[in-house]
Amino acid sequence: MAEVHGGCADSHAGGGFPAVLRSVDDYPELPESPATVGGVDRGKLCDAVARVAVAAGRDDTLPMLTGVSIEFHPGFLRLVSTDRFRIAIHELEWDPVGISGPASVLVPARALAETSKALSGPRIEISGGPGQTVLGLTTGDQRHTMRTLDMPYAPYQRYLESTHTATALINTAALVDAIKRVSLLSPRSAQVQLTFATASARLSAGGGNEGSAKEIIGCEFDGEPLTIAFNPRYLLEGLAAARAEVVEIAMNGPTGAATVRAADRESDGERRDGLIYVLMPVRLPH
């Protein structure tokens, strides 16, 4: 038996759990979605968000780096995230409405990732733009809004046009397995070194009293032999986000930023569109 006074209660034999009801007028007004700026395939947008969000920062004292920058271009959407140690960039086609030049909004990565998982239907309408405090995503009967971050985003454009002095094509699964094995002997998983030669990549980690590990896998390498080191977790996350059978690692010496991207090609020989993952190397030990 349940007894209610100004609220509701759920009861079971021998006990009750009262809950106080509040007036519906106390519920805050939901923000209105701004004007629609375009539409995009839901699956492609959700895929891009999942792949880019991996590089977003998790330090709330640097809120700018916890977001995903969504850039609206007349011909494509670009999603960008960075935590200062890596940058994830993904472009996809969309159907803009009234977009004549580049514009962007910065959205919390966690909110965007969770919202994209909750959406259903074949197509997403995007509402928002510069100066707006809200980004809206609408599909079918669902409408989601999220607050934007009102702050400038970290400059990254120079990494899109950087030249590289060496490139390696490597089977992704073989590289992932080798990193996981070798990094077991990396102190605090600090770094894994990759030494590239004409047809091989040697992975090594550890040393000193902790022991060491080395493994050699095949690759196609173009450039002067070099040794470069990466944080193994960051490299593994980039390889997973690339979602490719073969990846291309483009480098500019042992201290310059490296670019990881899919090397897979379409049937006509064109590179398959996908993620560009820029990763800063770790300083090599002396």
Automatic annotation (TrEMBL):
UniProt-listed Pfam families: DNA_pol3_beta_2, DNA_pol3_beta_3
GO biological process: DNA strand elongation involved in DNA replication
Compartments in which it is found: Cytoplasm
UniProt-listed Enzyme Commission number(s): 2.7.7.7
Nucleotidyltransferase among keywords: yes
UniProt keyword annotations, A-Z: Cytoplasm, DNA replication, DNA-binding, DNA-directed DNA polymerase, Nucleotidyltransferase, Transferase
GO cellular component, one term: cytoplasm
Boundaries of every DNA polymerase III beta sliding clamp central domain copy: 43-151
A molecular function (GO) term: 3'-5' exonuclease activity
Keyword Cytoplasm: yes
InterPro entries, alphabetized: DNA_clamp_sf, DNA_polIII_beta, DNA_polIII_beta_C, DNA_polIII_beta_cen
Annotated DNA polymerase III beta sliding clamp C-terminal domain residues: 163-264
UniProt xrefs under Gene3D superfamilies: DNA Polymerase III, subunit A, domain 2
PANTHER family in alphabetical order: BETA SLIDING CLAMP, DNA POLYMERASE III SUBUNIT BETA
Protein family according to the UniProt entry: Belongs to the beta sliding clamp family.
Protein name, per record: DNA polymerase III subunit beta
